[in-house]
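Q: Convert this sequence to structure tokens.
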Amino acid sequence: MAIPGCPVSINIPGFIQKIADRDFEGALEVIKETNALPAVCGRVCPQEEQCERKCIVGIKGKPVAIGNLERFVADWNREHNHKEKVTHPGVCTHKVGIIGSGPAGLACAGYLAKRGICVTVFEALHEVGGVLLYGIPEFRLPKDVVKAEIDNLRDMGVQFETNFVVGKTATIDELIDEEHFEAIFIGSGAGLPRFPNIEGMHSIGVYSANEYLTRVNLMEAWKPGSRTPIIRGKSVVVMGAGNVAMDAVRTALRLGAEEARIVYRRGAEEMPARKEEIHHAEEEGVIFELLSDPTKVSATPDGFVQSITCVKMELGEPDASGRRSPKPVAGSEYEIACDVVVVAIGTTPNPLISQSTDGLDTSRHGTVTVTGTHGRTSKAKVYAGGDIVTGAATVILAMGAGKDAAKAILEDLGVAE
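A:
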């Protein structure tokens, strides 16, 4: 019995039995059969949707907290220095390259390495971990947890090359033709931020959430004298209401903001962030400006953000999908004084890989097109999964895509699972 709908679903009865027997090493082995990053999933996956909502125990009471148990088991084994028992043939017979060290790439790497494939992960930044390291704050996903999971992959034989920008350092064709990789998996995510088409977006103090969180999480901009400083606003406005927006607004509070607020054009019920993350933000004092849409960022004479203008919105009639579209209320403009604006309204894939790879089909949104559910692209020997295929989504969906692509790679290489 597995978790319905979960892309890295685990053997629930076997897992629970191991925990009941206090065999936490064995419980981790059960998880690792399908999930390469349990300590991560236990913290950031939407368990209330993937696990708990479908748990039959929850019909009459509280559902089994699978996510918390998964987190506990992974943490216990790490704290007690219990290494995963990996069966590795010792001799690699095939060579596979993976672009991006985020959740999709790491899941794909782990699945292949366990089956004796020589795996090299190419990371554009100077540290491994992708969005897990630079996009999710320390208070939600500690960096030592991510690094421990990556160390487990290193112990399995996975090689990591940092500061390697595929499309610049080398193209996919060069990796295949000159470096003799037999397959390439693209898991580079969707890191190109979107900005609203409003006045003032080039003011000093306007950040994309991607840049804001990367400066803080990866570049340690919160440290005095950091080489990548950040404006520590006293009043911070975050546009958007997804999980990234919640991470950004809670980060602003930890950087010393006296006021940190979410501005979102829909209502509370439409906020896409996890209820848990919204609850934490409310507990920490975040202000929610709902049914409000930014229309302008105003700056001082020397170019620094000083305020944002918003218009009140109202929800119209439901469309064909059942979603009510927001409409501006005439004459309802108002101004919010602020010195930092963080834009968290979505991202798209960086076009570098698609532009440098002949024969790789993409959608009109810039995402890589795959056939079926196993990540095969229009280009032979090239696979893709995660946000670069779906657009911005969740860690668990990216991991599931990485695992599915790994299965397709094994099948196409003629390697038995």
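The chain is about 30% helix and 20% strand.
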